[in-house]
Amino acid sequence: MLIPTTCFNCESACGLLGYVDKQDLSIKKLEGNPAHPGSRGRNCAKGPATINQLDDPERILYPLRRVGERGAGGWERCTWDEALDDIAARIRTAILDGRRDEVMYHVGRPGEDGFAERFLAAWGVDGHNSHTNICSAGARFGYTLWGGYDRPSPDHANAKVILLLSSHLESGHYFNPHAQRIMEGKLDGAKLVVIDPRMSNTASHADLWLAPWPGSEAAILLAVAAHLLRTRRIATDYMRRWVNWETYLDRLHPGEPRDFDTFLDRLTEDYARYTFEFAAQEARVPVERIEELAKLVADAGTQLAAHVWRAAAAGNRGRWPAACSSSTCSPAASGPRAAQAPTGGTSSSRTARTRRRRTTTGTS
């Protein structure tokens, strides 16, 4: 019989079909599920290979408790009740003794949406560690601040321009559903733009590839935003509805008339210093390529699909939050908080470095 399930070898959550023996209920093989709305049966090799994990002779099937010295490799089987009681007692003792910082919850890849954070917060514990913390926390933090959600899914298939920053999901093993729709968009005539210091797999398919100095991506995005403002190639109705432009005027221009047109004028002035020449100097790429990018974004209108994940910039002070903040504060892709003061960071500007430190406060 066929049992639909989900692959969890990455966070794409592609659909799988398990071929289950009716006699002993053992799983014989796994294949892509064509009815899954995301992956549509077109799984990568890791999906069907899940059968190897199920049948791995070294797979841990029950709790094990260490015996002997740490590192000696000695383990004995214990019951679930014994394991849970032992762990719970240790956590309780640490909390009662005021040693909350000694409690850490680590999981390879979170399979829930915020549940672990909630119960740890209830305990007063700031110790959630996972693959996400060291892989994608920066990007997701930036998305959360500016868009309200940490893992958006752009409409690549219906885009006129697809803008991908960094060694993103689509360049390697990650997010098969995104890759499918990027190719659909390209086949339908969309322009693919990749900003990545290296020539990635995806960059090799790009219509425009920019290889900026690591950490300078935000300068490029700010220059694009400034161009959109100067030329008024912006979604004014959307900005009027969703951007906190009144707060922007109150905080940065308290003496100005409190109307939307004044806001646009002041915002344009505030972004005026982010010229194509400024971005070219910071990113060390030809100014003509940045201008070409800005015109592509402007011509895309509301059919711009942008995504950012990781790159060499991940090791820079600006990290991903700077790039996420700058990309989503572009008026063409404004979020509810997009009208705050210009933020972001580049690799060599003193003021940008100061802004970057503020942007990344509290991240790791």
Could you characterize the architecture of this molecule?
This protein is an alpha/beta fold and 364 residues long. The chain has 3 domains: 2-54, N-terminal domain of TfIIb (Single Sheet); 64-133, no CATH class; 152-359, Dimethylsulfoxide Reductase, domain 2 (3-Layer(aba) Sandwich). 39% of the residues lie in helices and 13% in strands. It has helices at residues 50-54, 80-96, 115-123, 131-135, 137-147, 176-187, 217-231, 236-242, 245-252, 260-270, 276-283, 287-300, 319-328, 350-359, and strands at residues 2-6, 15-20, 27-32, 64-66, 75-77, 105-107, 128-130, 161-165, 191-195, 208-210, 304-308. Strands 10-9-8-11 form a 4-stranded parallel β-sheet. The chain has a 3-stranded antiparallel β-sheet with strand order 1-2-3. The protein has a two-stranded antiparallel ribbon with strand order 4-5. Helix 3 links the parallel strand 6 and strand 7 (128-130). Helix 5 (137-147) packs parallel to helix 13 (319-328), helix 7 (217-231) packs across helix 12 and helix 7 (217-231) packs parallel to helix 13 (319-328). The longest helix has 17 residues, at 80-96.
